[in-house]
Design a protein that fits this description.
Radius of gyration: 12 Å
Largest sheet: 2 strands, antiparallel
Helix content: 40-55%
Number of strands: 2
Oligomer: single chain
Structural class: alpha+beta
Mean pLDDT: 80
Strand order of the largest sheet: 1-2
Distance between the termini: 32 Å
Number of helices: 3
Length: 57
């Protein structure tokens, strides 16, 4: 089984971005809401509303 990295860390700005690999996977699974990280937040928080805003800012 292939490992998929969801985020890539950018040290110069101390931030994370969603990888193209995960973005493609999310799209192929039909998880194409406003941002691919929304579904990760919903999964971790087990809450549809709060989870979709977990990664904001």
């Amino acid at each position: 089984m292939k490992t998929i990295r969801i985020f890539r860390y950018i040290e110069s700005i101390d931030s994370f971005v969603v990888t193209d690999e995960y973005r493609d996977l999310a799209e192929s699974m039909g998880l194409t809401e406003w941002h691919p990280a929304v579904w990760i937040g919903r999964l971790f928080m087990l809450d549809n509303d709060y989870g979709e805003h977990w990664f904001d800012n």
